[in-house]
# Entry
Amino acid sequence: MSNTIENEDIFQSHFLAEKTTDEPLIRVMALHALAYCERLFYLEEVEEIRVADANVYAGRRLHEELDKGSKKYTLELASQELGIRGKVDYVRTDAGELIIYEHKKGRSNKGNQAWPSDHLQTTAYGLLVSEHFNRPVKELRIRYHADNKTIIIPFDLDKAKEEVLNAVKKARGLRSSLGRPQVSVPEKLCRACSLAPVCLPEEERFVEEEKEKPLRLFPAEDEKRVIHLLEQGAAIHKDGYQFVISLPDGNKKSIPGANVASFVLHGNIQISTQAIHFCAANDIGIHWLSYGGHYVGALQKGAGYVQRRHRQYETFHDPLFKILLVAKLCRAKVENQLKYILRATRAKRSNETQGQEALQASINSIRHEIKALARIEKSLSKTGNETITQHDKVIGEMRGHEGRAGREYFKALTCILNLPEDNFLYFNGRNRRPPRDPFNALLSFGYALLYKDCVAAIQAVGLDPCFGFFHTPRSSAYPLALDLMELFRVILWDMPLIASVNRNQWRKQDFEITGQQVWLNKEGRRKAISLYENRKREKWKHPVLKYSLSYSRTIELEVRLLEKEWTGQPGLFARLRVR
Amino acid sequence: MSADKHWHLVCYDIRDQKRWAKVFKILKGVGEHLQYSIFRVRMNKTQLEKLRWQLSEIIDEEDDLMIVRLCPACAKRVIDSRDEEKWSESAPSFEIF
# Structure
């Protein structure tokens, strides 16, 4: 009998079924996910978000090592009638009767049972095998390697069929729906789930149950590093699984590919096609900036994220929704500006010093704008969708308040910096495109770096950066990235920058001054990048979620919370504040 | 979940030239070549499991693979004649060229 199994053309039935079916077959592994959590199934199979954690890799290795040496009969089977396809680990015959084996890395359920998801998966294999050989399967055996138990389940064809067909029906229903299912499984399942950092179930429970603080399933830090290339004429190549960076002076440095999060190429830096391919395949970002620090573009992988983008488009077409997001965002931005000013001038305001009146005036006007914004937000929550007819007018109003607060904020920055007018970093109001003084040049360069990270975070979550809610589209910038940036300008750049100015970290030689325009030169850019990247690595405690994480992770978290605004659990976006 | 990162020594003996080359290439992609057949990698649990899976796809039963995890204190006590890079705890989160 074993001979006949070996000699079977294992792929025939598989491809035939794949060709003739109208609906895509459902992988048996996907049924496993479905039995575990419907949301997991949706994220993995429909939205195609797959994250492998340590357990996933350990499971794969188990199968690799099992295969070594022993005779194996792995069968790849598909059934049109059942609507499933899958790879059966191991089929054995015992006195002419078929036995299905499934190996699992973990432990069994209470030492004597199979987990429901494993049960469903193995049952589906049983059906595939019995259909393929046109012979009944005697039993299913699930071997749990962690506690070394083998669970034997007798196979009943009719019962099995009912169980699997029900699951397939459910899977098809989910596949055709656009909405992401809600989190509906016990907490302990989420703790073991590899998709938790994407799905963020704890944050949803946090909103719903008003818990003290969510269990943190979101990674606190980035594990890989960002590589900036400033040296004009440098080039990046790929060698195997590593990158080789060659500098114009002939020096070379190789970096293991696994350690790179993204490349930022400033100006004339070459990158080979092979390296770009490698980056695309391994989710390594590439960002191109001009020599002057303007954002040029990023590597964007091919199609995908269809459901996510569809939901995003639909949401941002809803005017009321858009207005509410704008209100939240404006409030967050202006309140952060105010809080920072209050914090930075605490000592100054208590004793009489010069410029105090101007500062107090600015603070008062920002407070005034916040009140106005709060009033608009309140009136919005009262009225329904129908009653707000002049959406653009309301958004325009909010934009006006935000803009006025911004002007006052920059006025206050002049007081915070408190530099004499002849200092080269003297700041008197924001100007840009191009910046006309060194401090404005610093602000612009830092914002370009921040913009890069906002684009990267939006890409990582799978939203469309072109479609925002606050900024109007202009040709060269992504509106959604600009929207997101508003949350982080003060925290990620203004604060560390002003601290560095107060520490006298900048010299006149860091800048290139050409007539009316001021740019950072190489040394200056190097300093600014260090300042910014170090700030990103700093950890802080999220004021609402109350767990600590790095600022760089906060950007991505905020995008995920933004997406939650329209996928079931609103209320967490734009609530971060300077303390 | 991403747990803490640790230094690991990866040592191997591969009996077949072709398999050796594949293993060498993968390890170059994750760590530093210290000595003949010895690499050091700084990894967390997930990354280590991924590496073990990748290697298990290549190596045969006759080959040997040994991975030694060094605790931070052990890593500090490493005596390395090259002494180029210290076995410090945290790698830089960014690099500028």
Notes: The longest strand of chain A covers residues 97-104. Residues 376 and 552 of chain A are 32 Å apart (CA to CA). DSSP finds 21 helices and 19 strands in chain A. Chain A touches chain B through 49 residues (CB under 8 Å).
